Amino acid sequence: MDTDLRAPELVTLVLDNSLDGVLAHTVDGRLVYFNEVAAAQLGYTHDEFAALGPYGWVDDDLVGLVSSRLAVIQERGSLLFTSRGAPKDGSVVHTEVHARLVRSDGGRKDLIVSVCATSPSGCSRTSASGTSRSTTA
């Protein structure tokens, strides 16, 4: 492999420039990393997204599923599922999420790393009033 970048710099460059939203959070839902795409998909600035409370990026109606999904992730190591984000403007963004358990520091610091892509089945966004509009060109 030919690169002038050190491994940590390369990883950061790749994650920050992913076309999909990438985030890492603690098991209790506190963000520890996210790329700008993750914030932009939901209409937040970097600082606004960073200030979200536990699982603040998940649609309120689906927060109740978090514990069962975490149990599956902890049992299997990863999970692919559809979800809905909680955009700043009150609309709903349908996403496909691939979440994986990452153990660090001897298992004392478990993180969930997720790649969140807007759903390819129409890539639709539903406004707060319930009307749907396409987000594709």
Question: What are the main properties of this structure?
Answer:
seven-stranded antiparallel sheet; 137 residues; alpha+beta; globular; 23% helix; 4 helices
- Stretches with pLDDT under 50, minimum 5 residues: 121-137
Rounded mean pLDDT score: 83
What is the straight-line distance between the termini? 36 Å
Please give the radius of gyration in angstroms: 16 Å
What characterizes the major β-sheet? 7 strands, antiparallel
- How many DSSP helices? 4
Structural class by secondary-structure content: alpha+beta
The percentage helix is 10-25%
Report the sheet-strand fraction: 25-35%
Number of strands: 7
Q: What string, H for helix and E for strand, traces the elements in order?
A: HEEHHHEEEEE
Shape: globular
Topology overview:
Blueprint (H helix, E strand, L loop, with lengths): L6 H10 L4 E6 L4 E4 L1 H6 L4 H5 L15 H11 L1 E8 L6 E13 L4 E10 L5 E3 L5 E3 L3
Antiparallel strand pairs: 1-2, 1-5, 3-4, 4-5, 4-6, 6-7
Structure description:
By secondary structure, the protein is an alpha+beta fold. It has helices at about 5-15, 35-40, 45-50, 65-75, and strands at about 20-25, 30-35, 80-85, 90-105, 110-120, 125, 130-135.
Please sum up the structure shown.
Helices cover about 25% and strands about 35% of the residues.
